[in-house]
Structure to design on (518 residues):
């Protein structure tokens, strides 16, 4: 007999016979009779938390364990509401709708009811609160201004109090620990395994990029090709930004003075000439620099003495002199750099926007030089060397210099290679055999297992497949990616399904738990 056959009003609550095949009931919460003070609630809630969480989980699985009873319960409640609303005739089912109404009224219809509900069923109350808050976020987060912000804050609060986090957060921690463990056994690194799972979770282009490299369906050289194309795009973006920001400087007609440049030339002469004795190795550099200053002084002031004209002089000083001096020739670089800085400083004094323009351009230029030097090399550099540097970001601790390489890869992704990390992770996981030192460690493990097997320890036979699987980047990568795909479907359907299941599953419990909401 199901609960629907015997609902009767008995003073404080509903009673019925137990559901068929019902699991052993969770212990009922202990809450004293009479009014509660707020000071009593925390202690009682903590005391009753185990039974409350048990009911919370029981409600989620109720529709799965008892689909017929649950469906009948929902049908009767639904018919009850239709009868109460006059949409269908009769009143034989209104008692079920009244019971649901009374349940929520007892919990949230009064301060005393809310205190008692919080004391005896904290997980259920927080679950209801989470549903309301996160539902509000979904519905209202797109509203403009404070209303939308308030909805997002409410959604964050809802996720914070969600009892399902008691399960999902420890599970997430366990997955992360598994990433590190398998990153060691495979030699591919934990980041590659985590990236495989994340790509599966995202699906689409991320999943395709990772699996195409992991399964060797795409040429591995495309990783370097993508990285270099993104670097070229960074260069074009930097130049476009520079040209746009320099428009204001070029429009500035102010004619600048050469005082700071003359002072720089005097300092250069003091370095090159020691009490009339010239340093012969520095004379050619000195003469070029002084010649450029004198040339600019003799040019048309309307073009060559403006901020734009001085910027051109700065470029010539770098391209014709400073940029050609080897880094180890410190004295020559010092005198050329002194004049370069003097030209730049003169422009900055007269044109405040120029300093920002040059700071932005130099930031991009420095980043590009570092990316070329550290990761991808020049366009005609060997691909193998660039590939080794790119894939190294998956196998090294982010707190080392390799963490800087990972930052550079993120810059390249932003510039035009959005799936670069996914492809690198896939390439790191495309081998059936362990990588690096992990290969030797896996061999030792197998050697010991075979030795045990030869000694008659048959149980070691079961460890051989597990050892091979845990050491294979390809097998671990496929498993991590599959887990991510499962998470994607859980993201899309799982949480709403669990919450709906809880709300549906709690309906029969309104009747099988006697005197629950007195």
């Amino acid at each position: 007999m199901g609960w629907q056959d015997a609902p009767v009003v008995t003073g404080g609550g509903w009673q019925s016979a137990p559901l068929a095949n019902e699991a052993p009931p969770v212990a009922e919460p202990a809450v004293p009779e009479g009014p509660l003070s707020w000071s009593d609630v925390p202690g009682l809630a903590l005391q009753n938390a185990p039974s409350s969480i048990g009911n919370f989980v029981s409600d989620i699985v109720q529709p799965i364990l008892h689909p017929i009873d649950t469906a009948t319960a929902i049908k009767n409640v639904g018919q009850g509401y239709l009868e109460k609303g006059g949409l269908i005739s009769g009143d034989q089912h209104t008692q079920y709708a009244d019971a649901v109404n009374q349940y929520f009224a007892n919990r949230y219809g009064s301060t005393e009811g809310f205190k008692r509900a919080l004391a005896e069923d904290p997980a259920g109350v927080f679950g209801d609160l989470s549903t309301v808050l996160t539902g509000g976020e979904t519905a209202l987060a797109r509203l403009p201004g404070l209303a939308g912000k308030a909805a997002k804050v409410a959604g964050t609060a809802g996720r914070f109090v969600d009892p399902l986090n008691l399960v999902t957060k420890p599970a997430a921690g366990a997955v992360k620990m598994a990433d590190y463990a398998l990153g060691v056994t495979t030699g591919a690194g934990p980041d590659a395994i985590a990236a495989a799972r994340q790509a599966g979770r995202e699906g689409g282009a991320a999943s395709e990029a990772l699996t195409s490299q992991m399964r060797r369906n795409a040429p591995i050289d495309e990783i370097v090709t993508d990285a270099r194309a993104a670097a070229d795009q960074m260069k074009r973006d930097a130049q476009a930004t520079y040209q746009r920001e320099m428009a204001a400087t070029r429009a500035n007609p102010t004619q600048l003075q050469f005082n700071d440049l003359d002072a720089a030339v005097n300092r250069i002469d003091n370095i090159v000439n020691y009490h009339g004795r010239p340093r012969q190795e520095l004379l050619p550099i000195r003469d070029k620099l002084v010649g450029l200053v004198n040339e600019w002084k003799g040019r048309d002031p309307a073009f060559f003495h403006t901020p734009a004209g001085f910027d051109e002089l700065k470029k010539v000083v770098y391209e014709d002199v400073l940029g050609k001096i080897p880094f180890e020739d410190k004295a020559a670089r010092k005198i050329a750099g002194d004049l370069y800085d003097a030209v730049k400083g003169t422009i900055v004094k007269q044109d405040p926007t120029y300093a920002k323009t040059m700071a932005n351009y130099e930031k991009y230029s420095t980043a590009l030089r570092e990316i070329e030097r550290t990761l991808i090399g020049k366009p005609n550099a060997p691909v193998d060397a660039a590939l080794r540097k790119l894939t190294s970001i998956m196998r090294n601790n982010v707190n080392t210099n390799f963490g800087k390489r990972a930052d550079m890869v993120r810059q390249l992704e932003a510039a035009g290679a959005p799936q670069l990390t996914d492809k690198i992770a896939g390439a790191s996981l495309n081998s059936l055999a362990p990588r690096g030192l992990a290969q030797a460690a896996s061999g030792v493990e197998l050697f010991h297992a075979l030795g045990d097997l030869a000694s008659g320890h048959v149980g070691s036979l079961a460890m051989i497949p597990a050892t091979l699987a845990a050491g294979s980047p390809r097998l671990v990568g496929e498993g991590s990616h599959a887990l991510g795909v499962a998470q994607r479907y859980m993201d899309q359907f799982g949480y709403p399904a669990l919450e709906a299941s809880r709300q549906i599953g709690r309906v029969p419990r309104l009747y099988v738990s006697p005197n629950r909401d007195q």
In short: The mean pLDDT is 76. Residues 256-344 form one domain.
